Task: structure prediction
Amino acid sequence: MIRPTRTASGIAALALALTVVALPLANPAAALAAGSLAVFLLWRGWRFERDLAAIVTSLAADRELDRTILRQGTAVTVRVRVDCTVPAGMAIRARDLPPAVAVGDAPSVLPGETATYTIRLMAPGETVFTGVALEAQDAFFSRKIVCRRHDAPRLRVFPAGTNGNGRGRGATSGEIEVNRQTAFAGQSVRGFRPYQTGDDPGQIDWKVTARRDAYYVRQLTGLEGGAPLIVVDLPARTGDPETNSRFSMAVYGAVEAAIASRDGCSLLVVAGGEIVRFLPRTQDIRDALAALGGLAPLEPRAPLYRAPGPAVLAARARVPRNGGGPEEVYRERLGGILSAFAKESPVPFAAAVRRALDRADARELRLYSLLPAGDKSHLVQVVNEAKIRGMQVVLKAPAGTIPGVDAVEVL
Result:
């Protein structure tokens, strides 16, 4: 709504005074003067609104940010330039409006000037700028208006991680406690798994064991460190957009955290039995984001539908030598045959993964996947190649698992 300036208020007061004089005295000159002043104010108001509409139509906002994918609470610098056509006799000031979840304000500038300010995004998810606020004024009227259509670019904010107490406890509560890798102080415990024959009884976590009524052991992180290999299995086009968004945020968060450390990371992006992108050992966040390519859903063009590698095939067919009977001997021989067959007939995907693992030279593989229904043999191939090299494999998925992984974290 337009507001009158002091000049317009004075003219309105004069018109009112003339009206008060004209009515009791029946003075035509005073009535004519009051009416002329009222018509003049109406015309100036109409002209002000017309000029303001032309300004809004010509408005253009150009924003530049340090990055558009960031962690919750991280500061980001915004540079914005607002341009518009300003009619003669009118003064315009523009102010950028940050996202609703942001902390920080932008200064008011004249059209054509560049404003620089810093904000912090305090809530995770996808968000956009609120728009541009304009303050227009001429000699008679003023008005503040917000242009909502100028909201680019879109920002993606992922949650900030939390640290545990380092005492071997699981997650907070519920079914996601088991088999979840949790961040602990000192990186002493990486997760939990069911107890297996031969495990060290000293690694049994009695708190988790009591809750699950089954033995669970703590999995310790390695002491050697090193840059991890992050493998991303692209989601399908038919997936849920909200699930895909959470998946993308988890991947971006892991990549930024790895690059923020001293070691950096390697990236391997796959879609079915096909390597889409590979970036070995990088500490440049821009190169990493370019390699991820926005994590756009992609339908696999080369599904494998293939049995796992030689180690898994042999384990399926081999049995312990208890009595050395014919069945045990037969299964042991079958395991050897299947293992040899798998070694002699590798698929191109497995060979490409093998070369990528050699170049990455990592001790830990973090596999991100939504584990869609259907063929998962390409993921089993990746895990098999990693286990052959003695790598620790951590699967990060919404639900489910695949053979050979050492720990599972529920996204």
In short: Confidence is low (pLDDT under 50) at residues 161-188, 221-225, 319-323. Residues 305 and 375 are 6 Å apart (CA to CA). The chain has three domains: 3-55, 57-158, 223-306+347-410.
